[in-house]
Amino acid sequence: MADGFNQEEGDSENRIHIMNDEGQIVSKRMVENHFTIPEPDSEDGRSGINKQPEEWLPITQSRKGNSWTATFHLLCSGIGTQTLSLPLAFVYLGWFWGILCLCVAFVWQLYTIGLLVSLHESVPGTRYSRYLQLSIAAFGVKLGKVMAIFPVLYLAGGTCVMFIIAGGGTMKLFYQLMCDDCSSKHPLTTTEWFLVFICLTILLSLFCPNLHSVSLVSLFGAIMAVGYCTTLWVMMVAKGKVDGAVYDPSKVVASDAGRARSTLNALAIIALAFRGHNVVLEIQGTLPSTPNRSSAKSMLKGVRASYLIIAMCFFPVAIVGYWAFGNKIPVNGGMLTAISTNIHHNASKPVLGMIYVQVVLSCVSAFQIYSMVIYDNLEHAYVSRTSHECPKLVRMGIRIFFGGMTFFISVVFPFLPSLALLVGGFALHLTFGYPCLMWIVMKRQPTSIRWWFTLGLGCLGLGLSVLVIVSGVWNLVCRGLDANFFHPR
Q: What fold is seen in the domain 51-479?
């Protein structure tokens, strides 16, 4: 009798009670989905199986960060060479619309960062420390993976490729600047400079097993990024305007179709200047969280501090750059190309050399943050298959493999920067669209004004992504493509 009672009590946890048409309560057994964890073969395996897999992966291995480290990561990942193209957007939009669009984009992306930070611990006891995890929680397993896994990995890997092209190319510029009178008859080719750059990043990554361990590197990279932005606009103020600078957008293009295309290009340049949203949740995942103090408080401090500094970089570069060069801003390369050509002979070598070095070191540092997303996914695949932590040798192999892969892509497709609008548009919704849509799905407050506002913002974000892709395709049709496969210049 007792055994029957115990069996019935155990089964009751898997039963559901419903009322039939006659008013009687009927108990039915629920169908269970079983997931079996394989038995470890050794005593070490039995002790390791109890350890949380989150503690094995690079993103969440260490949660000892604070608002300072979050600020360093956000600054290092948020400022890049794309900032130097902002004056080009003003060439197409003019003063008023250029400043207005830049302000709107800045506030918009800052709002979506706030949404991501608030969703990190939106479910009590659960932390979404990866963009993909939050997407799955919001849209379900199948749809969440379809909507996020490709854009997240594509953006992280593609950004690393862009770092190689920008960093390696700038190293070549630095060498040419400092060694134009050198006696070497065999200077390094651009491909070899790419190789030097990726070797530096791989070597540095071997000493950074997890995202928190990159904190000092991020601090250094943030100083370099803020440094070259500040040095550039201060130098332009000191040098003054370029002769013949014009500030009339109507004189840049004559036809209506050309003006429409240039306007789309300007919006795309401004939108793509803001980056790093695909690593915001990962950065917050390095912060500790307790019942008394959630990670959101420390993260929001880091967001406020970092984006105040980012604004102090973006707006002066855009405004002063346009003031100094007007419509003479180069289409490819932005301010970095401008200072290498227009005022090359008027600026001192040490100043230009310092800017080049800062750009290279900033790219090397930011590479560590974005590549950590790829390392985390590859190590997660290993842990899922073996139920063991990644050995150091495997981690080293993953970093060398990814570095070699990105180097190969940068050599095969060295013209990717000329397709920045097209390739960037495919992941732009991660910044302006998806955070809004994930928030409205998880909050479910249709009666709230903020809910409807965020829904509209999310739809606009998806539309903006489509417009940027259209702009990239339109440019490709009008300008063509100099596809120098395997021949970086």
A: Amino acid/polyamine transporter I (1.20.1740)
pTM: 0.87
Distance, in Å, from the CA atom of 383 to the CA atom of 377, rounded to the nearest integer, reads 10
Q: Which amino acid is at 270?
A: I
Residue 302, C-beta contacts closer than 8 angstroms, at least 6 positions apart: 67, 68, 69, 70, 71, 73, 74, 283
Of 328, 338, 342, 339, give the one whose Cα is nearest residue 91: 328
Q: Is the pLDDT of residue 406 over 60?
A: yes
* Structure-token pair, residue 18: 């419903």
Tens-digit pLDDT profile for residues 346-370:
668 888 999 999 999 999 999 999 9
For 278-302, b where at least 16 C-beta lie within 10 A, e where not — what string?
A: bbbbbbbbbbebeeeebbbebbbeb
- Residue 392: how many other CB atoms lie within 10 Å: 10
Q: What is the pLDDT of residues 242-282, one digit of tens each?
A: 888 888 887 888 788 889 999 999 999 999 999 999 999 99
Q: Give me the pLDDT at residue 44, please.
A: 38
In angstroms, the CA 246 to CA 239 distance is: 17
3-state SS assignment for residue 287: coil
Say if CB 15 and CB 355 are below 8 A apart. Answer: no
Tally of helices (H runs) and strands (E runs) in the chain = 18, 2
Domain boundaries, the chain: 51-479
320 vs 246: which has the higher pLDDT? 320
User: CA 210 to CA 127: how far, in whole Å?
Assistant: 18
Helices 190-205 and 349-386 pack at an angle, to 10 degrees, of 60
Helical residues (DSSP H) of 13-129, grouped into ranges: 43-48, 67-78, 86-119
Tokens 């997303």 -> residue: 373
DSSP lists the bridge partners of residue 28 as: 16
Which amino acid appears at position 177 of this protein?
L
For residue 29, list its beta bridge partners.
15
